[in-house]
Amino acid sequence: MILHKCGLPYFASETEKLIKHLKTSHKVKLGPQKLKKCFIVFKDAVLDTITGRVEEFSPDRFCNAKLPYNIGISQLEDIPCPDIPGDLCPTFTEFLDSFTVGKDDLKKFIRAYFNRLLRSDNSSQRFLYMMGPTGTGKSVFSLLSEALVGSINTCHTTLARMNQPLGFNLIQFKEDVNCC
Question: pTM for this structure?
Answer without folding.
Answer: 0.55
